[in-house]
Amino acid sequence: MNFYGEQLLSRRDALARGATDAEIKAALARREIAVVRRGIYVPAAVLDSLDSTGRHLLEVRATLLASAPAAAAAHGSAALVHGMSLWRVPERVHVGIPRSSGGHVGRHRHVHADGLTERDVDVIDGLRCTSAARTVADLARTLPFEDAVCAGDSALNRHLVTPESVRESLIRTPSHRRRTAAESALDFLDGRSESVGESRSRVYLHHLGVPCPELQVTLMLSDGRTTFRPDFLWEEEGVIGEFDGVSKYSALARPGESPANVLVREKRREDLLRAHGWTVVRWTWADLTSPQLGRELRRVLAAGCGGARPRTTRVG
After folding, report:
1. Given CB 3.0 to 4.6 Å as the disulfide criterion, which of 152, 173, 183, 211 pairs with 189?
2. How far apart are CA 103 and CA 94, in angstroms?
3. 198-315: which CATH number, 3.10.20, 1.10.3470, 1.10.10, 3.40.960?
4. What pTM was estimated for this model as a whole?
5. For residue 97, what is the DSSP state?
6. Cα(286)–Cα(289) distance, integer angstroms
7. How far is residue 285's CA from residue 151's CA, in Å, rounded to a whole number?
8. Domain locations in the chain?
9. Quick check: 269 pLDDT over 60?
């Protein structure tokens, strides 16, 4: 079947181009094509090349092809269209409609009847979706605190929204469900957080009562040339916190550099910081599911109170 450079092809368009249902069935059997949703196909090789985010975006495009013209991707689906980072990719495609009733949840689609207006809609890469501000406001109303913070931090970090634009969208949203929870999430957002791992770490520290750290502060070593920008900083206590995720090391890798070399470079970096008087605590995804990290951080923070200051200079 010829897609003529398009990523998706509907059964109706395939038949209009001269294909038959028998040919479509045979192409599916040979796995030349795959079903994205009923009556909409994609080259199987394209589908196989996508990660979970890419597959969801493909499902969003297919769903909107089969939806009413006024429908728009919403909530988590819209967040991915805008390029926000989410902790968890939605299981269903979320669609907003311009009505205040008629919302429903199906096997593959969640329709939100939240009184969507054209003021709340953007078009990105040909896809109708809720504006970034409306999207963050909707997620703050409907997702658990941790998920909402991850999305909102990402939107602020990418300069897709401002705190004011999100609050204005929240005020205009007809639904008042979980408005207090939404405001709590919005109060906690911080655009200096650079990844889902850092956002989840902030929520973890907050819930366990660990003092709030500063984010992304640049420090210069005593040589006056070497600088570091740790994820989390407790300056008075002389403590640095670093979240270690796979994506972080991928981002730190230089052209042609192996993961092993990145780890060696990070170890040397940590040794330099320790030599300048800093206590460095590192953690991973798994640590965010246990209170042990919180206990360790409270211990090193208490030990650092009143001690000698690290021999570095704060830049900026």
Report:
1. 152
2. 11
3. 3.40.960
4. 0.89
5. -
6. 6
7. 17
8. 9-48, 52-191, 198-315
9. yes
